[in-house]
Description:
The chain is of the alpha/beta class. The protein has 2 domains: 24-265, 3-Layer(aba) Sandwich (Rossmann fold), CATH 3.40.50.300; 290-369 and 443-544, P-loop containing nucleotide triphosphate hydrolases (Rossmann fold, 3-Layer(aba) Sandwich). Helices cover 33% and strands 23% of the residues. The protein is built from 19 helices and 22 strands. α3 (122-132) crosses α4 (137-151), α4 (137-151) packs across α5 (166-178) and α11 (383-393) crosses α12 (398-411). The longest helix is centred in the middle third of the chain and has 18 residues, at 196-213. This is ABC transporter ATP-binding protein.
Amino acid sequence: MLLERRSKNNVKTVQHNFQNQPPLIELKNFSFGYEKSEWTLNNLSFSINDDETILLMGSSGSGKSSLALCLNGLYPEAVEGYSKGSVLFMGHDISEMKKGVLNQKIGIVFQDPESQFCMITVEDELAFTLENLSVPREEIDCKIGNILQTIGMEKYRHEKIHELSGGQKQKIALAAVLLMEPELLILDEPTANLDPVSSLEFIQLIERIQQEQNISLLVIEHQAEDWQEAASRLIVIDSKGEILLDDKPEYIFTNHQELLNEEGIFLPKEFQDTPALAFTQPKPRVSSEKILSLENVSFSRKSKQILNDISMDIHRREIIAIAGENGAGKSTLLQIISALLPINEGKINFLGQPISEWGENDLRKRMGFVFQNPEHQFITDTVYDELAFGLRLNHADDKKINSTVSELMHFFHLEKEKWKNPFSLSGGQKRRLSVATMLDETPDLLLFDEPTFGQDAKTSSELMKKMIELTEMGVAIVMVTHDMELVDRYCDRVMVLNEGSIAFQGKPKSLWRNNELLNRSRLRKPHRVRFRNDMDEEAVYDLLY
Length: 545
């Protein structure tokens, strides 16, 4: 049977030996689990049709990413898991398809794009994909140029992938998948590492590619705000791994808000009953005590200047956001503050002494760092041991270890994962574990790179509540984030990086007034500000602040 072929003008022609064309993907009573005694996905039955755009939502750990990997045949075999029921691709059971064929027809851009790279440079990565597809050598150069132009990354062709920002890596991962010309494109939280404007541009890019290539699209997202108009269907998976809802997005968001709230799923702002103005959390009074300062700090990598003349102070009890477009140097600055990267020029003082004079163990007791990729922090084989590691290093007794670990697992909803390998957790669970490992003792300064990445509404709210509690205990928190709603709601100050320099330091309310800087830094005002234009601006700020 000929399942699919492409004409020269890239329009797909589908041929079947039967009169009625089956769905592109069909699940029939499908279940999947990492252990026979516990199913992650339960009895799923639904279809994906040609040229359809489906939004897949669910609480953190509900099995969304696992489902994506089951659809293209990687699971259960790759993890030695278990499944029952069937997954059909164009009427054929995927378990009977030749290995490698399905992976080309169903392409996935993973939640962590780094996990799918094989080569060092952008060009080599894309060439590697084309060579595996047996594309003639004389066509490879042109195809690489075309796909980089499509995603707006032409100037990064010869860059090393590990030196790209998180958002830039996401685009390269997308390019590699698009080169395979898949029938179904699965995107797992594709905009989580993109600045606000790049996020909108990415969605517009995907919509254009879908129309040009006639592909079906499955988008896994916690935030539906910018995807809902493009999606024809919304499928919601509950915490038991079962399908809770399957209908048009607007219908679900309008008629099933209570169910969605119970599952901890973000509602788009326009469907929220809570007035936009009634959101402020009581913030602690910022202390005058300065705990860390940067003076005229610069950093370059080889001959490339990344940060230039950075000066800032951090005080106890405050939450500071570092914002800016992809590649502005936000994550680099966070690593410099934490002494994970050496500076070329300038001074850094922490708790009254140069940071270079701190011993490594003493420094890590007083300062915690949560990486953008949580897997970079994991060093043990179980969740329990990961949480106990720092306590054991500091010679805590067994009673202290057990009580602290139990408290952290309860707060971060990791009790059921106690003896699982950290690398086997969902993206959201990995993020919560990485944060929890920093809280076995109360530090003076906590640094977060995208703290709410992969989190549902409930766990995001709980995490931010925990941050507020920590600041009330005297902890200072600095976080890199693209989430302007988070900045607006929780942060005392925001610092905007633009082209390696500080373009703004001040209160969020002042930033929202600076339209020129917001445009230049590819940031968007929060929903509250964008959609309250009918009120007097000063009156709004008076109410909020």
